[in-house]
Amino acid sequence: MAQKPPKTTVKIKSCPLTQYRGDLIIIPLAADGKPAASLEKTLKNTVSNVLRLGDFQAQPNETSVIYLDEKLPCSRLMLAGMGEHDKITPETYRQTLGTALRHADKLALKSAAVFTAEVPKTISPEKLAQSITEGALAGRYNYREFLKPDKRTTDNFQLTIIPPTEKLSAAFRKGGKLGTILANAQNRVREITNRPGNEVNPAVLAEQARKLARKYQLKCTVFNEKQLKKMGMNTILAVGSGSANRPCLIMLEYAGTKKKNIDVALVGKAVTFDSGGLDLKLPNLMDTMKFDKAGGCSILGIITAVAELKLPLKLIGLIPAVENMPSHQSYRPDDIIKTYSGQTVEIKNTDAEGRLILCDALSYAAKMKPDAIIDMATLTGACVVALGRHRSGLFSNNDQLIEQIQTAAQISGENVWHLPSGPEYLEDMKGTVSDLVNAAGRAGGSCIAAAFLGSFVENIPWAHIDIAATADTTKEKPYRAAGATGIPVKMVLEHLRNLK
Ligand code: BES
Ligand code: MN
Ligand code: ZN
User: How far apart are CA 279 and CA 299, in angstroms?
Assistant: First the structure.
């Protein structure tokens, strides 16, 4: 019964449009741009007619399918709107192609060619092909694992990108290849993150990590409960104590260079289901909590893509994996837990579990003295309130890292907003019968949670990405399915690519 996510193969090929033999020709068009002067005459006339009639305004996410003269080998042309010409960015191309391919999927097509009449001055040819590829592949993704097979869905869609001139083929090929790796990593993460809690528990996630490690030649170590106990990872154990699905810590290692020091340690929250524990969530806040593993799942995508890209880096990925459940075994409010670092934490709310499993993983990462630590977590509802659904929260103890991640985020189209988490916020998290507490009211909820995390990284440059609002969405967009988004896979990959 299980249906796999759809596959899309991208090929770069110069070809006169009137000779293209596939199902659909896609022409991205700007609202105030003239119909591509480089179009062949018959097509140019057709496009001009549609524009003159005003049936197509080239607004963002607007598409229009035109049926072509039967003498042509391809029967369909799709105009795909990009909005104002001067506002076109790589993200415009991602969304435009996402929308176009989701439309093509509704028609059950098997192939399409995108004709890029021009390369905008502000975008390199390589970046253009990369953006088109990312948008197309991410756009075609739907979570279909538990749906009856649909004969109309095309499993291997053939996308041809036609560069404006033959000369640009090499650059386009490079961009297409990079875009394919990035989008496939993002979709891999979406697929695992979309699986519900009855399918993915900590042990299943560990098995998934092992499988990917074999495929991408990474080292994978899974610390089980017994080992965690011996190591003193008591916060991971405490949060996991209420569930029959036992907790673990997954560690992935990538060595793309022989040098000794670790460039970046990645840490990702994987709560395979967050019920809140004894401080049980209200029903309307509990559904969608299968997505609480998004940070950890992202690491699986990031580190495998780094291996595919063969980046000359040394990386480590740490994924504390737990299920947060209420039971007679659960950890309780008022419990005092001794963390791996030695600091003690009093539990004020069992629903503030993310920071607990992360703090032991962060201390473990810090002990390896990496150049930087980046953690990603669906950490706080407060971040949803503060920033809405359009940006992830960025917190850090290092100005350079802030700047680097802001830049990478902007380039990748996955936006962040820098929020504070300095020592004044940590003050709020100090305890009276313990060093720290795990929750301290609503004021600055995301900032105090980040400050809590920051107290476990010693002096290592550290960034925390709160993806509570961005990792999943209930709203389908014309260019993207609802469900897991794969954020922050692409921004972190962009950052890592810039380090080499
Ligand atoms: N996983 C949640 C955060 C979350 C909320 C993610 C909404 C996505 C959407 C986290 O474990 C949590 O429950 N945080 C609490 C903390 C509070 C008890 C201090 C929250 O944000 O309400
Ligand atoms: Mn919680
Ligand atoms: Zn949570």
Answer: 28
- Residue ranges of the chain whose pLDDT lies below 70: 1-2
Cis peptide before 423 (omega within 30 of 0): no
Specify which residues 484 forms β-bridges with: 472
What is the Cα 251 distance to its own chain's centre? Answer: 19
Concerning whether 355 is annotated as a catalytic residue, the answer is yes
How far is Cα 447 from Cα 72, in angstroms, rounded to an integer? 60
Coil, helix or strand at residue 218: coil
Predicted TM-score (pTM) of the model is: 0.98
What confidence score (pLDDT) does residue 2 get?
65
pLDDT for the residue numbered 154: 82
Q: Is the CB of 439 under 6 A from ligand 1?
A: yes
Q: State the distance from the centre of ligand 1 to the C-alpha of 227, rounded, in angstroms.
A: 28
H-run or E-run covering 14: none
Which of 285, 380, 472 has most ligand 1 atoms within 8 Å of its beta carbon, as the pocket-test mutant?
A: 380
Q: Are 391 and 416 in contact (CB under 8 A)?
A: yes
d(CA 64, CA 56): 7
Please work out whether the CB of residue 349 comes within 6 Å of at least one atom of ligand 1: yes
| Predicted pLDDT of residue 310 | 98
Task: Check if 415 has its Cβ closer than 6 Å to any atom of ligand 1.
Answer: no
53 CB contacts (<8 Å, ≥6 apart)?
none
53-72 residue pLDDT tens: 999 999 999 999 999 988 99
pLDDT value at position 32? Answer: 81
Other CB atoms within 10 A of residue 314 CB:
20
Q: Is the dihedral of CA 414, 122, 499, 178 positive or negative?
A: positive
Q: Is 121 a catalytic residue?
A: no
Tell me how far the alpha carbon of residue 355 lies from the centroid of ligand 3, in angstroms: 9
Helix then strand count (H, E) for the chain reads 15, 20
